[in-house]
């Protein structure tokens, strides 16, 4: 058993998922899902995941929709977004009402993400 | 024939002569007066007058009334119960004596002390009655034939004159009416013309503003489309950039853990990927900023990063041609406003500067803070702007570029954006030396 912080990363693009795993696997235990529904299933199976980082634009549930559903079930977990889109007023509003803690822009900045996550390690 | 009668006859003949002579024809308005005076004297009458029949044929207005002493004031009298009633429209009529007995209701004649009367009617050329020529006598007269005959001669002449007068009057009236009609119509026409002119001007104005609105609409439509396009493109570029940066991090970690065989080169290669990705990411960001289609005026706009974004976007046309000299203030300069729109302003001014440079040149950008104001100076050594058009360059649609190559809206839009930010835009230029644009903005 390791004591690494557990992170769920949701992205519909395979390479993005692989990259995220490779970049952060040495420090955190990474769970990956290719869409929102899979993400919800993993959260159900693995209750001790604390950090959730999701892409925005995905088939099925988009990032905001997925995080909304997840947060209803698990309100204490920490939710983030990582997207290729520039921040929009809609997203800004989500940050303001506390749904999302922070919005990371692609290409990812390892330091920025680590600094944020480390708050909970 | 007595001497007296002879001299009388002479006098009458002389009168006839004078009347038909040319002199009298040219008397005009005085004609009646002259004739009546002469008749009164020649015929030994106490009163003589020419009267004009009223339109309803009920009364007579004297045109000239004289007695032995001279001209009297004209009068108007009712025809009823007068001897004239028997003359007008009929035949000459004479009464040798007893007028008061014969016309007891003609108070006027009674008051004048008239005893005898000779009157002849006046007709116009259509045989319509028009008036009367009358001699009145205070004493009874012996013979009326000579008087009647002479009056008849003058009556036809007076009739003609009367008719002439009437026609002339009608003509005058008609002329006046025509004149006033023409004047009225001219006024109307002028008014209509003016109305037409002003509505024409209004139409031209409307057309112009419509054209302006249309071009601005096209422009904003373009910007909106560009916004959608770039945000989509940005997303599509950012994802593969994510691959690259992820791969770079992954490889860096790998070499950290497994020792590179040639660390000097692999480090350079890994760093090259890093720098390349960052640069692409900056350009994409810049495009995004520029085309963001919102009216939000509450954004924190970092002037230096906006300028840098613009240089990045313009690097394809400025590279190898223009030296960019940045003399930025050491502190970050923030303006409250709309980041996209400020990008638009600097992009416009900088691209004008770059286009003004033929061959090799330079653009110097200075930013500084003075009290609560930000001053941004953009100076090029391009071809400059002629003095006589310098004041026009911010007018909408003013352009020196060939048709189709510039809308002439760039600086007009830039000016209105700077105004929206409570700032000012100033141009100083000298032909063949260059142009300096100074932008003042309030500090956040």
Automatic annotation (TrEMBL), chain A:
Pfam family, one: Response_reg
Keyword Glycoprotein: no
Keywords: Phosphoprotein
UniProt superkingdom: Bacteria
Residues of the Response regulatory domain: 6-121
Gene3D superfamilies to which the protein is assigned, alphabetical: 3.40.50.2300
Signal peptide, first to last residue: none
Modified residues (4-aspartylphosphate): 55
Keyword DNA-binding (UniProt): no
PANTHER family: STRESS RESPONSE REGULATOR PROTEIN 1 (PTHR44591), TWO-COMPONENT RESPONSE REGULATOR-RELATED (PTHR44591:SF19)
Protein name (Swiss-Prot/TrEMBL): Response regulator
Annotated source species: Wenyingzhuangia gilva
UniProtKB/TrEMBL annotation, chain B:
Class of the enzyme per the UniProt entry, highest EC level: transferase
CDD domains documented for this protein: HisKA (cd00082)
Catalytic reaction(s) noted: ATP + protein L-histidine = ADP + protein N-phospho-L-histidine
Coiled coil region boundaries: 186-216
Keyword Kinase: yes
Signal peptide range in chain numbering: none
Domain Histidine kinase per the UniProt entry, residue ranges: 232-444
Database matches in Gene3D superfamilies: 1.10.287.130, 3.30.450.40, Histidine kinase-like ATPase, C-terminal domain (3.30.565.10)
E.C. numbers: 2.7.13.3
SMART domains, alphabetized: GAF, HATPase_c, HisKA
Alphabetized UniProt keyword annotations: ATP-binding, Coiled coil, Kinase, Nucleotide-binding, Phosphoprotein, Transferase, Two-component regulatory system
UniProt GO molecular function: ATP binding
Pfam families (alphabetical): HATPase_c, HisKA
Superkingdom in the source lineage: Bacteria
InterPro entries with a match to the protein in the record: GAF, GAF-like_dom_sf, HATPase_C_sf, HATPase_dom, His_kinase_dom, HisK_dim/P_dom, HisK_dim/P_sf, Sig_transdc_His_kin-like_C
PANTHER family assigned to the protein according to its UniProt record, in alphabetical order: PEROXIDE STRESS-ACTIVATED HISTIDINE KINASE MAK3, SENSOR HISTIDINE KINASE
Protein name as annotated: histidine kinase
Organism, as annotated: Wenyingzhuangia gilva
């Amino acid at each position: 058993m390791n004591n690494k912080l557990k992170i769920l990363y949701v992205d519909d693009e395979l390479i993005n998922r692989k990259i995220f795993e490779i970049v952060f696997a040495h420090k955190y235990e990474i769970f990956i899902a290719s869409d929102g529904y899979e993400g919800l299933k993993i959260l159900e199976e693995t209750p001790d995941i604390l950090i959730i980082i999701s892409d925005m634009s995905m088939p099925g549930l988009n990032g905001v929709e997925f995080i909304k559903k997840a947060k209803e079930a698990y309100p204490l977990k920490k939710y983030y977004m990582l997207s290729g889109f520039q921040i929009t007023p809609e997203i800004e509003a989500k940050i303001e009402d506390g749904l999302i803690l922070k919005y990371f822009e692609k290409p990812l900045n390892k330091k920025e993400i680590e600094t944020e996550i480390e708050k909970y390690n | 024939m007595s001497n007296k009668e002879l001299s009388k006859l002479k006098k009458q003949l002389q009168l006839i002569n004078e009347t038909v002579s040319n002199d009298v024809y040219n008397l005009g308005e005085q004609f009646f007066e002259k004739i009546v005076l002469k008749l009164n004297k020649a015929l030994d009458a106490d009163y003589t007058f020419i009267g004009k029949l009223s339109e309803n044929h009920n009364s007579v207005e004297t045109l000239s009334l004289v007695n032995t002493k001279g001209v009297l004031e004209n009068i108007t009298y009712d025809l009823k119960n007068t001897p004239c009633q028997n003359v007008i429209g009929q035949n000459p009529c004479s009464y040798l004596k007893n007028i008061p007995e014969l016309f007891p209701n003609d108070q006027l004649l009674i008051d004048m002390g008239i005893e005898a009367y000779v009157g002849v009617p006046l007709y116009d050329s259509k045989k319509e009655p028009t008036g009367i020529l009358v001699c009145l006598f205070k004493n009874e007269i012996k013979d009326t034939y000579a008087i009647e005959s002479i009056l008849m001669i003058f009556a036809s002449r007076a009739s003609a004159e009367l008719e002439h007068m009437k026609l002339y009057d009608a003509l005058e009236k008609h002329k006046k009416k025509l004149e006033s009609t023409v004047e009225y119509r001219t006024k109307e026409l002028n008014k209509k013309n003016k109305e037409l002119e002003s509505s024409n001007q209004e139409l031209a104005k409307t057309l112009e503003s419509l054209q302006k609105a249309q071009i601005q609409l096209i422009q904003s439509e373009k910007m909106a489309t560009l916004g959608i396009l770039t945000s989509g493109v940005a997303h599509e570029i950012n994802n593969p950039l994510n691959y690259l940066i992820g791969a770079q991090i992954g490889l860096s970690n790998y070499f950290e853990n497994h020792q590179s065989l040639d660390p000097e080169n692999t480090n350079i290669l890994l760093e090259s990927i890093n720098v390349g990705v960052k640069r692409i990411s900056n350009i994409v960001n810049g495009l995004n900023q520029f085309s963001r289609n919102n009216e939000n005026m509450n954004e924190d706009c970092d002037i230096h990063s906006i300028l840098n974004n613009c240089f990045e976007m313009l690097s394809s046309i400025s590279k190898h041609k223009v030296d960019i000299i940045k003399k930025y203030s050491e502190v970050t300069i923030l303006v409250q406003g709309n980041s996209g729109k400020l990008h638009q302003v600097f992009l416009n001014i900088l691209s004008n500067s770059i286009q003004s440079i033929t061959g090799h040149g330079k653009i110097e950008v200075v930013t500084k803070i003075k009290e609560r104001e930000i001053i941004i100076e953009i100076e090029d050594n391009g071809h400059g702007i002629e003095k006589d058009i310098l004041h026009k360059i911010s007018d909408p649609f003013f352009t020196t570029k060939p048709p189709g190559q510039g809308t002439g809206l760039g600086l007009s839009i830039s000016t209105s954006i700077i105004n929206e930010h409570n700032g000012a835009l100033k141009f100083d230029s000298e032909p063949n030396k260059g142009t300096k644009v100074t932008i003042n903005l309030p500090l956040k």
